[in-house]
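To close the chapter, one final illustration. This time we ask the reader to focus less on the individual chains and more on the assembly as a whole: which components sit near each other, and how the overall shape emerges from the parts.
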Amino acid sequence: MGKQQRSGETREALLESGSRVFATIPFDKARIADVIEPLGVTQGAFYFHFENKHELALEIIRREHAMMVDLSERVLSSAGGGLAGLHEVSTGLAELVRADVTVQAGLRLTSHTPEEFPEFLGASFTMWNDAIGKFLLRAQRAGEVRSDVEIEAASRFVVATFVGVQEISAIATRWADLDERIREVSSLAIRGIATDEGYEAFTASLSPTAAR
Amino acid sequence: MGKQQRSGETREALLESGSRVFATIPFDKARIADVIEPLGVTQGAFYFHFENKHELALEIIRREHAMMVDLSERVLSSAGGGLAGLHEVSTGLAELVRADVTVQAGLRLTSHTPEEFPEFLGASFTMWNDAIGKFLLRAQRAGEVRSDVEIEAASRFVVATFVGVQEISAIATRWADLDERIREVSSLAIRGIATDEGYEAFTASLSPTAAR
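The assembled structure is written out below.
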């Protein structure tokens, strides 16, 4: 194995270990030792890859954002789109939040210690507003969303609902009930913006037995 | 002024100063010195009233909860109730969040460092689900909420939406736009659960010029 490849693997291992640390320990309390000890990596190796703890955290947040943008663009470019696509994004997002330690770390870093990452202050909300807006606009053009619904306001509404559900589920059950909570609020949230036909199509897509 | 009265005033001053500290500094980083220095109070005086920083924080969280329960019960027992009452509670809550340092401290302590306060894990969500449920049940009996709406699910939906809006507004504008954001999402959220008559009555009550 070449030196460059080994170096890349160490960097990946540091990001993975750092994610585990930041997903469970407050940023202020987390130490570089917590990140390197499970890997048997030296302080020197850490500082070769990252200037400090803050820079490691920034890269984890960047990756979290990239994963979320990827998810939304993948669904948007697939046949789906519209309200069914919105549901697909919600459940995909729930899966990431529940199972991916990089996403958990990114969410915790930006929501519990936003003052440490002013670069990202509100950036993820803006990103989500834009992404959800694309689904809603497509749904409105397809007659699934009422024509009197203002897309930007409706996007902020959907994002706020998801942020709230995620926060409550994180605190109450550490995301164990996130799927169930999303299914519950989606149905009520969509009812507020959908046409009758759009709402029927959406609830049909919620059913676990729905054809794909 | 009697000794007991002075002691009570010191305790209140410590709670007020502690709220200012916990509203702005992460719990881990906040020091008792930060609480007592602005008051010119001694460490000894602090420990006469509170066992430690954690006990001070607990009392602040308890007060935050009590203020919120008071608000909801006051509106519920007033003529209002129903969907207009729900809006009154939302705006009252927004006012507390924006202007009251005890509420700001309680929210930050329980949402940023929930692991430090397991006594309150999820307790505020349960309290809010119950409180909002009372408004929605009254609204349903008055024909403002559709009869097929399940009250507990709808309560969790309304609470999740408010939690999300509060969190986004806190991070993006430190609550400066909270009123506007609540007005925007309330209208969409209520549309998802209200009858046509209920929604009309609700939007009429949203208007700043609405008769009280």
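Chain B has ten helices and no strands. The two ends of chain B are 43 Å apart (CA to CA). With these observations in hand, you are ready for the problems at the end of the chapter.
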